[in-house]
Give the backbone structure.
Amino acid sequence: MAFLLLVVLVCAALLGVFGMAVYSSLVKFWPYDLSLSLHNYTFSELPGGWLAYRNSLLLATATALFGSLLIFTGSYLLEKTRQTALTQALRLLCFIRMAVPGLVLGLGYVFFFNLPANPLHGLYGSLALLVMCTVAHFLTTAQMTAASALRQLDGEFESAALSLKVPLLRHFLRVTVPVCLPALLDIVRYLFVSAMTTVSAVIFLYSPDSVVASVAVLNMDDAGNVGGAAAMSTLILLTSAGVSLLLAWASRGLLRRSQAWRAAPGL
């Protein structure tokens, strides 16, 4: 009961902080006019209105889908192929990102893609560049999660597939992915929530057409629009929580179907 009371107190403090942000988004003018209104959710003082929120949804969805596919497949190739100097160098590059702050990463992207002589200069300011930067930003943690799941698989699975003349692609889709599905879903959830809330790197790369919700929160708060900033923060919070709950609900059905052997009697 003592530990339960401690957890309840901590959760109440956290919910109180979040609740004040939600409450301040529903008042007309914080803290002078506390009458309730949905005026802040029109984002009338934000250029493009709901454009920033839509861009964040596109960024988070593309980062979660493309990033999880790229990271999990890359981790599979690193862990399940013959270890050479190249694989060791690639693994080292995956860990180097953990030592690079997001601000430094964003500045590096600015200096590289903003160079007029660069053939990739056309990507500067686009949503595609934000997706690339966000995937690189959160690469290390996702790659470590995927590598840990793949290392738990017996190394003889691929040899058995080859001896049975089963293509490695089919083995990857029918065996590796279903067994590692919990880790893969965690990567998808991690990338989505991180892309919805990230600021440090993307703040250097957006354009008026690709501004995201997290950057819009800073801009509105700097302009004195506290209510609009709280409203956008509430949307980010509810979207991240909703997608996390949706993935948790979907994972139960997927795991029940793909890993029924875990619930077998006697296991």
